[in-house]
# Entry
Amino acid sequence: MNYFEHCQSVEEAKKLFRQLLKQHHPDIAGVEGEAVTKEIIQQFNSFLNGFMSHSFNSYYEDKEWKPNAEAVTPFQEVLRKIITLDCQIEIIGYWIYCFNSKGVKEQLKELGFWFSGKHKAWVYSGKPKKGRAGKETLDEIRAKKGSQKIEKEEKEEKEKVKYPVKLAV
# Structure
């Protein structure tokens, strides 16, 4: 059974992934759940690989220059590692931008991200920073290279305990 065949986005797949893991976790589903959980994880990773490859290939299909296949694999690995971090992720061209990522900057540094002061984001390009800043704004880069935001589902509000109000009369 392919659990993620109907998913149209990374967000949709992540939401389904969490639901399936809650349902089939070995603590809940017993010994049979362990095998199903492993299959779900493997299928989710395959979905991410396929999704990223498709996005990457569709962007470069009409371009004269195309990066080689070995260059794509680290990109997918890095995305898989940061997908759960508390930051806004956007893929712009062949770079990963992480906005509002102050709390996870150390993890991003370890993965090879560098900070762009101009764009106020941590950036992963697969290569070390060259030391010179480009002149284009983020909107110009998005228009030129294309972009895709990885939307995170909104955090569910915690149930608020309502206390009865007593009026003094």
